[in-house]
Amino acid sequence: KQEVTQIPAALSVPEGENLVLNCSFTDSAIYNLQWFRQDPGKGLTSLLLIQSSQREQTSGRLNASLDKSSGRSTLYIAASQPGDSATYLCAVVLNAGNNRKLIWGLGTSLAVNP
Amino acid sequence: NAGVMQNPRHLVRRRGQEARLRCSPMKGHSHVYWYRQLPEEGLKFMVYLQKENIIDESGMPKERFSAEFPKEGPSILRIQQVVRGDSAAYFCASSPGTGGENSPLHFGNGTRLTVT
Question: What confidence category does residue B102 fall into, taking pLDDT thresholds of 50, 70 and 90?
Answer without folding.
Answer: low
